[in-house]
Amino acid sequence: MQTGFCMLECGSVRSKNSKNICVKNLLDSCVSTIAFWSMGYAFAYGTEKDSDKNNDYMGHRGFFLAGNGYNNDGGQYAKWFFQWAFAATATSIVSGAVAERCGMTAYFIYAFILSGFVYPVVVYWVWCGEGWLSTGNTDPYFDTGVIDFAGSGVVHLTGGIAAFVGAAILGPRTGRFYTNSDDQTVIKEMPPHNSALQVLGTFILWLGWYAFNGGSTLQITGQGVTLARVCVTTTICASACSLTAVIIKAVLSGGEYDLGYAMNGVLAGLVSITAGCPVVEPWAALLIGIIGAFVYHLSSKLMLYLQIDDVVDAIAVHGFCGIWGVLAVGVFGSSKLVTEVYLSITGEFAKGWVYGGNGNLFGAGLVFIIVNILWTGGFMTLSFGLMSYFGILRVSQKEEEEGLDLSHHGGSAYNNDDKKETEMAFSWFGFGK
Amino acid sequence: MQTGFCMLECGSVRSKNSKNICVKNLLDSCVSTIAFWSMGYAFAYGTEKDSDKNNDYMGHRGFFLAGNGYNNDGGQYAKWFFQWAFAATATSIVSGAVAERCGMTAYFIYAFILSGFVYPVVVYWVWCGEGWLSTGNTDPYFDTGVIDFAGSGVVHLTGGIAAFVGAAILGPRTGRFYTNSDDQTVIKEMPPHNSALQVLGTFILWLGWYAFNGGSTLQITGQGVTLARVCVTTTICASACSLTAVIIKAVLSGGEYDLGYAMNGVLAGLVSITAGCPVVEPWAALLIGIIGAFVYHLSSKLMLYLQIDDVVDAIAVHGFCGIWGVLAVGVFGSSKLVTEVYLSITGEFAKGWVYGGNGNLFGAGLVFIIVNILWTGGFMTLSFGLMSYFGILRVSQKEEEEGLDLSHHGGSAYNNDDKKETEMAFSWFGFGK
Amino acid sequence: MQTGFCMLECGSVRSKNSKNICVKNLLDSCVSTIAFWSMGYAFAYGTEKDSDKNNDYMGHRGFFLAGNGYNNDGGQYAKWFFQWAFAATATSIVSGAVAERCGMTAYFIYAFILSGFVYPVVVYWVWCGEGWLSTGNTDPYFDTGVIDFAGSGVVHLTGGIAAFVGAAILGPRTGRFYTNSDDQTVIKEMPPHNSALQVLGTFILWLGWYAFNGGSTLQITGQGVTLARVCVTTTICASACSLTAVIIKAVLSGGEYDLGYAMNGVLAGLVSITAGCPVVEPWAALLIGIIGAFVYHLSSKLMLYLQIDDVVDAIAVHGFCGIWGVLAVGVFGSSKLVTEVYLSITGEFAKGWVYGGNGNLFGAGLVFIIVNILWTGGFMTLSFGLMSYFGILRVSQKEEEEGLDLSHHGGSAYNNDDKKETEMAFSWFGFGK
User: Fold this and answer.
1) Residue B178: helix, strand or coil by DSSP?
2) Domains, chain C, with CATH or none
3) Chain A from 10 to 39: CB within 8 A of any B CB
4) A228 to chain B: which residues are within 8 Å by CB?
5) Could you count the other beta carbons within 10 Å of the beta carbon of residue B245?
6) C7: number of CA atoms within 13 Å, CB side?
7) pLDDT, tens digit, for every residue of C288-309?
8) 3-state DSSP assignment of residue A231
9) With an 8 Å Cβ cutoff, are C242 and A34 in contact?
10) ipTM of the complex
């Protein structure tokens, strides 16, 4: 998944910042590793067997994967590894939204906070059996808990909220929005520098999604059947969403088949089906994808209207389609399939609205979305706000104009003319800049 | 596989059309999804348990994966997903051959027809137990049926035939072939714009092939041993074919190690072994690869001689090496291994020619090739011919010269000078072109 | 893995040689296939059941995967396929170090020698149960044998030694080191031409490493627990090493976040943990990674000091961190885990130094490193020396300056201006240069 994000984002920025975004994507994975190993996993899943000693809101054991029941426990190690991949994904979502202007140090502080604390707490609520929103809780919220199978809300919405807060506090790239002589607000398009990398990233992410959605079936009963269904619904939803997005753009722009909409359409479809992939029928996956394309289009427009400068549309794709994904379970969840996958949810509670359910699934999802916006939004506003206050959040005007590759990474990412060779004297302790 | 094809083709076209080919590859996967879900799978595998109600030529149940025995059946869902990947592959083969000049709408109509009807019917014949060429048929053709393990003929030849018809009816790219002042026919070389992407695509395809050839072992007996043999023969054949192709080119061109021949040699070897990978010995895989390189080279030359302009040599690689792959089973099939994998084929029938068999395997393969050429060739001639008649098949001369990225996709795929920023006013319903 | 190496190296060279490095990487895999099938596997694992007939130093059966116990044996075929991937990896390591100046024919001769003979012998010593350094030997060296789980020493050090010898005998690229007017030795930096490809390669390698380290657990007992631990330690070590390397560079260069150090840091960490991944605790993996970053930095500097021109720092990453990886087992190996994975090593013998062991593990590793340097270093010095003597090792001065793509591969890898179209007459037997 990291590979996919990195390629997509690297292709999406202007070439003067492509090395910068690569460094960010490579190192945020590394920072997530340390953060999720030292603290994150403990906050996400650190419970005691005696459930009286646990609370509803966050874990408290297993820091550094150490301690009784963690150290050298194969199940815990495997779970850590799989969950680490999710944590790194949630963290990476933000890098695209704040690209081309966010400071490197600030970005790493953000990455540590999100993957070490903010995100794990959300995981605990929904995916750890003890969490207040978990379907496994002995007294689940709304009598059902929240069905978010592979993380539309837990992973993508959390990342999307952080991306929104980051992009909003940073402000747009210089010159992105301005008022022209007619007093009209004008948007300057800053086109991606390499479409081939973007497409590569999209295909890799699509493939990676089968690992995430499919991998999430490993811990449930009847995994064979569920895995097959997950693959089918994921494929149909992504395809339908991409086709719909391209058609929307073609209609509005007078016949242009837009690569950006095709690619973000695939991702929007994948995010939309992530929560409900094992509990909806193929035809419902088709509808979720079609609606997801409209959600993506409108929220992308909304960001422009609000003059929030999201370089890769991460807020629309992960944030808004993440919301839609969580709500879609409450709309299209089939009682037969819900009960098959989540044994604790039965009868009227297991039905989505189109099956005439009592609305509890939808309500639980809605509450989760609101609380997540408050939690992640609040904490990240504080974090990004403090970094902004201390002046480390945004690079200087001059650095932004020159491009971050030149000012921070020793030169351009591309050297096609073979002339940019520089000289330096040997030194054991320096790099002769 | 889609990732690999997309990167390979994107690197192979001229840069002014690279965004166009990416859109085509991304969306043909999406179109294939809808087509194969709604109709294709039903035509390919839609049979009834009571075999009297089935026919020899096409399926008739399971549209939209709905109906008794399909809806929520884990086995059917898993099979759909695996077969969808094959269908999308067959469909993608054509995009490279018709690149740089085929209209987008025409391409999507083609993709729907091939993956929704033409290709599934071929699948039914060979891979569905009820088909007239299937080894599982109670009265198989030539007493053996056709051994096409992972689709040299079903997938690659079908795609190759469609590619041939498409490229022939479209005609070559403007300026590709012309007569010079000496009355000699001259070929203008239009070099690929990015070799690195091509190599990336080739490596990804190579890796993906293990998934296809290996994955095809999942439904047979003794899968462990077969899977191991498939990996060995696939590796040896691809390597031998690539080395041979490079040597052929080096000898003929006076010492040049050609990257294009190295890459297409790998693919030609993979296509050549796809039909027979589980039923031939390693030494036979070596010979199949060496011969495959000559098949590739000669058929690539033949296309130039016929002035068929195939941008990525898809016809030579998938079409002609697909034919060779099917025939190679009849030549090199080892009776011991054939009987091990296809229990119904025994004795003289199971022997390839080098083992002194009765030639039935070879004959059945030959009939399959001829009938497939008639079927796919005929149907696609009709389809492409109609699109050509209605004037939607080929882009205009002007668009072709400018490049499709500019005329249809809002600008170039690469923006390295960071200057190509355009401005537009905000609008909820437009894109301010 | 090949994909990753190829992209990383293609991005790392100057653009005028990028096609050359792609051909080398594609075809060295093909050469390795033939070499490892015909001879290599037999030298690495060709033993008889009756152990009296085997020796301690190299195998002698199973050439061409033929013969009793090899032909159509599923276990042998599967092992060949997995081991082939290792052999191809070891072979590919060298291509980056000798890039931009090594002749193509010489490179293929080298590839055949290494993957067909030199490397397999090292494999026999350590991984084949009969080898004199194997933990499975009935009378293992130092009473323990060498723990090199997935090949820090067997694969990476062997490749690194060959890279060192190759780069040293070839000499640096023209103009890389020279003495300026102040009599000071000056290093000319020759920057990579495409950072995006480098990062892509790094991510793919990272992912591929899980297949190598994880896949190596398939043949041991208690594989589930071990696999999970391997994933955890691999992740932590790679992340820690990359972060440390970036910090080292940032401190020494005054605040620059270097992409090259971030990427090579990941690889250095992966190489460092490869030997010990199943037998160290997560905290030890962290330390191994941190120390690995210093090993990488210092050895990279050492190569510059010695004026050995290693284009991608392969010697530092694979060679020196490979040494560190083997030694790290003797330092951080946990007796509990060692005994769990290697049943034959118990008590004091199973303890690394930090656990107060008797030093046998460390000693065995040290002997292995020294003997491998003598064996691979000696044999490759002879091989490269002979090729140098016969004048085929290095391309001519003129070819090097023009770039190898122009002189040997029919033109540049990139054709962005769409103008480089050439013409030729059709010919069945030529390419109209």
Assistant:
1) strand
2) 2-409 (1.10.3430.10)
3) 14-16
4) 74-78, 81
5) 29
6) 27
7) 999 999 999 999 999 999 999 9
8) helix
9) no
10) 0.91
